[in-house]
Amino acid sequence: MRLALLADIHGNSIALDAVLADIQSQGGVDEHWVLGDLAAIGHDPIGTLERVKRLPNGRFVRGNTDRYLVTGELPKPSFTEVEQDATLLPKLVEVARSFAWTQGVLSGNGWLNWLAKLALEQRAVLPDGTRLLGVHASANTDDGRGAYPGISPTELSSLMQGCDADLVCVGHTHGSLDMTVDGIRVVNPGSISNSFPPDLRASYVLLDADANGYRIVHRRVDYDHAAVIAAVRRVGHPAAEFIVRYMQGKNTPNWSKYTQ
């Protein structure tokens, strides 16, 4: 039994295509688990959703940005925070325009209804009896605190409370992680799109399992970042410069936002 664990595609079909090609080069998989944040931010939300929907034996969970697209909620900064700090206004405008653009692209093609039906979690039992849980941020939530590189065992333990699983696979923070706490192994495959320097390649995980146990392999896949930049500008994406900064490795991780 082999699973591919993908997270945080963010509408980047170019990066996704590179990862799917790499999966095939490794012999393919029995199931694809897609751990949320599928469409928002990137240049090709429809193309991305069309690709993941066609995946054989695909399992999907809802990410926070998937929910935002459906409900109209927005990530930070909030209006209250902008009232208290006017310097945050440009960021609020950029975020609002980005999500409105993606909502507009998806709504006319019926994809918001598909996103609205995404599950909060996926569960399975591996051949050796290992209980597998797939979520976006942490047990029982698609947002807020997440599992990031350098997280303390105490903090990670608190995120896994009530997970009822032996192996938990998460996304959300865009940072690869493989850590065991309280007998629970927590794996973050990293992100397909919007990775952080020094390694801007797309990141995912292959999970091989049989009756004797399972093995986790982290994979990194290069893709054409210049082509993404060109596509972002070609479609007139309102958050083009935000995306370009990721593609050029100019955005560094702020893990503190995942501790709140």
Care to describe what's here?
- The longest helix has 19 residues.
- The strands form two sheets. The chain has a five-stranded mixed β-sheet with strand order 3-2-1-9-10. Strands 4-5-6-8-7 form a five-stranded mixed β-sheet, covered by helices on one side.
- The chain has nine helices and ten strands.
- α8 packs antiparallel against α9.
- It has 260 residues and is of the alpha/beta class.
- The chain is globular, with a radius of gyration of 18 Å.
- The model has no long low-confidence stretch (mean pLDDT 93).
Helix content: 25-40%
Distance between the termini: 36 Å
Estimate the global geometry from the Cα principal axes.
globular
Number of strands: 10
* Residues in β-strands, percent: 15-25%
Rg computed from alpha carbons, rounded to a whole number of angstroms: 18 Å
Oligomer status: single chain
> Class by helix and strand content?
alpha/beta
Strand order of the largest sheet: 3-2-1-9-10
Sheet with most strands: 5 strands, mixed
| SSE string | EHEHEHHHHEEHEEEEEHH
Tell me, rounded to a whole number, the average pLDDT: 93
Q: Unreliable runs, pLDDT <50, ≥5 residues?
A: none
Count the DSSP helices.
9
